[in-house]
Amino acid sequence: MRVVSLLLLAALAACTPGAPSAGSTGAAAATTTIDVSLTSSVVTATAYGSAGGFSPQVTTVPVGTTIRFTNVDSFAHTATSISGATFPASSPFSASALQLFGNTLSGGFTSGAIAAGASSQTLLADAPGTYLYGCFFHYGAPMRGAIVVH
User: What is the pLDDT of residues 35-85, one digit of tens each?
Assistant: First the structure.
């Protein structure tokens, strides 16, 4: 009788709206912070081209992780997605990079201008892939980075 009661209870919990799904731990996704600072950056060669201004310059995370850019510099920067497999030679950005957009890596994003000491919106690493990004103001510095999602 006890086994039947436990099975019935489990079945009811599975049908309850808003209840965690089977196997769910209820834990929130981890958030990875990428520091944004042109002044404390070292330019590094990466598989995607020269990168700098973001620390780490290449960030590797599992699907489900959230990403936040934090400006630890004394002036504004952006973190704006770039399509393609390598960094373009010249800036690919238009003025639209200054307007906040997106909440997933796969959908494209820009933080808009992140003021000194401020942070970007949270972005979800929603699909495996390599996501390149750069700063509208300092792309040629080269202020660029990559997020690899596995």
Answer: 999 988 899 999 999 999 999 999 999 999 999 999 999 999 999 999 999
4 in a structural domain: no
Total number of residues shown for the chain:
150
Q: Answer yes or no: is 92 within a domain.
A: yes
Instruction: Examine residue 107 and state whether it is found in any structural domain, yes or no.
Output: yes
Per the structure, how many domains does the chain have? Answer: 1
Q: Which amino acid is it at 109?
A: F
Structural domain including 121 reads 29-149
What is the sign, positive or negative, of the torsion defined by CA atoms of 113, 117, 122, 128? positive
Answer for the pair 66, 124: CB distance below 8 angstroms, yes or no: yes
In the DSSP assignment, the letter for residue 72 is -
- CA–CA dist 111, 109 (Å, integer): 7
In this structure, are strands 66-71 and 80-82 parallel, antiparallel, or unpaired?
unpaired
Dihedral, 73, 64, 102, 119 alpha carbons, nearest 10: -20
Rounded Cα–Cα distance for residues 32 and 46 (Å)? 20
> Residue 34's domain is classified under what CATH number?
2.60.40.420
Q: Is residue 18 part of a domain?
A: no
pLDDT in tens, 18-38: 333 333 344 456 899 999 999
